[in-house]
Design goal:
The complex is a heterodimer of chains A (103) and B (371).
Chain A: E1 2-8, H1 11-17, E2 22-28, H2 35-45, E3 65-69, E4 72-73, H3 85-88, E5 94-98
Parallel strand pairs in A: 1-5
Antiparallel strand pairs in A: 1-2, 3-4, 3-5
Chain B: E1 3-10, E2 13-20, E3 27-32, E4 37-43, E5 51-57, E6 61-67, E7 75-76, E8 90-91, E9 97-98, E10 104-110, E11 118-123, E12 126-130, E13 138-139, E14 160-166, E15 174-179, E16 182-186, E17 194-195, E18 216-222, E19 225-233, E20 237-240, E21 248-249, E22 258-264, E23 272-277, E24 292-295, E25 303-305, E26 323-325, E27 333-336, E28 342-345, E29 353-356, E30 362-370
Antiparallel strand pairs in B: 1-2, 1-30, 2-3, 4-5, 5-6, 6-7, 8-9, 10-11, 11-12, 12-13, 14-15, 15-16, 16-17, 18-19, 19-20, 20-21, 22-23, 23-24, 24-25, 26-27, 27-28, 28-29
The chains are: A alpha+beta (103), B mainly beta (371).
Chain lengths: 103, 371
């Protein structure tokens, strides 16, 4: 069963992808709603985001970005860890957050 | 009626400034890609409406933007710069070995003959090529595989390949410059490369005249005389008349021979321009005066160009990509400052005025002369 996951992007990536504050992507099944699956779906729907959130080759998260869900920093969870049920159910968004730094 | 289009890259976006051939009244369009660092914007000489822009940030990495209508609209193209191989390491700031890591595109050099072919100079230093308008990029691997690669090191701005010169008389010859490795030349279309740094003396190096390690800031030539190269090195203004095989210093009595850009007049191959900066420790113009220096003899003899430029309390820098030349008659000279001013001289440097005085810090300036 396809699950709709809400994703909140930082300002500059919204502009780059020409979307609003929140987008939806679909992943197959709650048990497959992982950070990796959400980012794969996000990049498939918005190819311009490839390389801007994680490295093209290693798939490592860019250093100045963090991932949050249900108020928790999940940046250091394994990319194949299942996201909280509220995110998989579409009640809570998956947040891509940029570091608050720089001029 | 001729016109010019000035492509300005800044720390916080790109601006496109247009004027007729008088170059007195300007229309400023932008910011494009607001909030992003725009290291370089350059147009194709084959199709001037084809522009390439390097958009990057520490947060989100590299994006390449392309315009096919002179900068009115833009679309992102490919941003995947994968090194062809990992031939060992280069030196890190502390002298330890460090693997190559892609960071950003510093410079585009569109082909002289094909609008879809463009070269990109990147940090960590390497040369990439696209033949499909920037959609895909492949490394010109012969450069980084040169045996000296292990001795290349980053300058303060990173280990960047910032200068690419295409010889208009020989499609197999091109020149590149890397901080801090030096200059290199290929005579076989990029398959093999030769360091061309003989005559350079860099006193910060353990061996000041070593084959590589020099912090070359910029190289320029006149298209009609591509074997005569002019260089602004970290310190020293240099000249070669044999395609870089040998260099000699032509700094003369400049108030400082430290600086970043160097440019050649469009119609006078022996007329060159530099902007002296106080020192490598104090990156601003000497004596609070913003002065472009011109030599009409290919170096050694220099005159200060000051009309219209601030001559007191000025402490800006002019970065290596931030000077450009148009091909109108009289030749126009352009440069941008870290203080956000972009200046134009429509008369070969005799008189200057500001196109804009309140841009973000300027990283690059290019100009297109349009029919």
């Amino acid at each position: 069963m396809l699950r709709k996951i809400r994703v909140v992007l930082p300002y500059h990536l919204r502009n780059l992808a020409r979307v609003g504050a929140e987008v939806e992507v679909e992943v197959e099944g709650a048990e497959r709603a992982t950070t990796q699956a959400v980012l794969d779906a996000l990049e498939a729907r918005y190819p311009v985001l490839r390389g801007t959130i994680r490295d093209h080759h290693t798939k490592e998260r860019r250093a100045f970005l963090r991932f949050f869900a249900c108020g928790e920093d999940i940046s250091f969870e394994p990319p194949d860890a299942v996201l909280p049920a509220a995110v998989a159910a579409g009640d809570e968004p998956f947040l891509v957050v940029g570091a608050i730094a720089g001029g | 009626m001729s016109s010019v289009r000035v492509l300005v890259g800044t720390k916080k976006g790109a601006f496109i400034c247009t004027s007729d051939g008088q170059r007195r009244n300007w229309k400023i369009d932008g910011p494009h890609f607001g909030g992003w660092e725009i290291y370089h914007v350059k147009g194709s000489p084959v199709d001037p409406n084809r522009l390439y822009a390097s958009q990057s940030s520490s947060w989100f990495g590299q994006v390449i933007q392309r315009s096919d209508d002179g900068g009115t609209t833009w679309a992102p193209v490919g941003n995947e710069f994968g090194y062809a191989s990992m031939p060992g390491t280069h030196q890190w700031y502390d002298g330890t070995p460090h693997p190559w890591e892609f960071k950003r595109v510093w410079h585009f050099e569109p082909s002289l003959t094909d609008r879809d072919t463009v070269l990109a100079g990147v940090e960590d230093a390497a040369l990439f090529k696209s033949t499909d308008g920037g959609t895909t990029w492949n490394e010109v691997a012969g450069l980084r595989e040169h045996a000296s690669g292990k001795d290349w090191m980053p300058g303060a701005g990173g280990m960047c390949l910032h200068t690419i010169l295409l010889d208009p008389t020989n499609p197999n010859r091109m020149f590149v410059a890397i901080s801090a490795a030096g200059s290199f030349r290929t005579d076989d279309g990029g398959a093999t490369w030769k360091p061309i740094n003989k005559g350079l003396i860099s006193n910060f190096m353990p061996v000041p005249d070593a084959e590589v390690g020099h912090c070359v800031h910029r190289i320029a030539f006149h298209p009609s005389r591509p074997a005569t190269l002019f260089m602004q090195k970290h310190w020293d203004v240099m000249r070669s008349d044999d395609a870089g095989d040998n260099w000699r210093e032509v700094s003369g009595a400049l108030p400082s021979d430290f600086g970043f850009p160097i440019a050649v007049h469009a119609h006078e191959p022996e007329t060159i321009y530099v902007v002296p900066i106080k020192s490598d420790s104090e990156h601003y113009v000497p004596d609070g005066k913003l002065r472009v220096y011109r030599s009409r003899k290919g170096g050694e003899d220099w005159e200060a160009l000051t009309n219209g430029l601030p001559q007191q309390d000025c402490y800006v820098n002019v970065l290596r990509e931030a000077m450009a030349i148009d091909t109108l008659d009289d030749c126009g000279i352009y440069f941008g400052t870290t203080g956000g001013q972009v200046y134009v001289s429509p008369d070969s440097g005799d008189n200057w005025s500001a196109i804009g005085e309140h841009f973000p810090a300027v990283l690059s300036v290019e100009v297109q002369t349009l029919a």
